[in-house]
Amino acid sequence: MQRFKKKKQIFLIGSIFTPLALTTSIVNAGTFGAEIFCTMRDGGNDHESSWEAAYTYIKKQKGGIFKVSPKQAASQITESVIRDIETFSYCVEYLDKLHPNRKLLRELKKKEERKEKELEESNEEFSDETFERYSY
Questions:
Q1: Domain with 62 in it
Q2: At CA 40, angle to CA 89 and CA 93, rounded to 5?
Q3: For residues 58 and 97, what is the distance between their CA atoms, to the nearest angstrom?
Q4: pTM of the model
Q5: 90 phi and psi, to 5 degrees?
Q6: CA atoms of 27 and 47, how far apart (whole Å)
Q7: Is the residue at 110 inside a domain?
Q8: Measured on CA atoms in the order 61, 67, 71, 76, is the torsion positive or negative?
Q9: Number of domains in the chain
Q10: How far apart are CA 92 and CA 125, in angstroms?
Q11: How far is CA 76 from the centre of its chain?
Q12: 135 in a domain, yes or no?
């Protein structure tokens, strides 16, 4: 009976400290991801390459079953920069590109797809039979 109580206590202690250990690694990944992003941007790299490097690092460090979405990674970077504003003061100007207007991007993508579809439909109207190169 006493053995069961010890196992129960160990299980409870383990279940309390395990999530704390996991969140610490996620926070560290976000902080170092922010360092990667900000250092690359400050060094003159464009947004895309800096973002890809930071996002890849955060995804790699997260591990586990669930993946980190780009939105979550951008939030982690933003939180890290805001928390440690003295260290990342040069990086505040780059944060706006981490959170683009996603609704506007979707609308632009839909417009582009519609234009491509219309172009394909107009190209289908002209077949080889109706348009011969050397018929005078």
A1: 2-100
A2: 35
A3: 18
A4: 0.55
A5: -75, -10
A6: 22
A7: no
A8: negative
A9: 1
A10: 52
A11: 10
A12: no
Look up residue 107 and give its two tokens.
């609308």
Provide the token pair at 77: 């970077």
**Which residue type occupies 131?**
F
Q: Could you report the per-residue pLDDT of 18-64, keeping only the tens digit for each?
A: 554 444 444 466 788 999 999 999 999 999 999 999 999 998 887 77
CA distances from 50 to 19, 55, 73, 91, 93 (A): 30, 9, 13, 12, 14
Q: Please, how many CA atoms are within 13 Å of residue 21, restricted to the half-sphere of its CB?
A: 6
> DSSP string of the chain?
-HHHHHHHHHHHHHHHHHHHHHHHHHHHHHHHHHHHHHHHHHTT--HHHHHHHHHHHHHHHH-SSSPPPHHHHHHHHHHHHHHTTTTTGGGGGGGGGGS--HHHHHHHHHHHHHHHHHHHHHHHHS-TTT--TT--
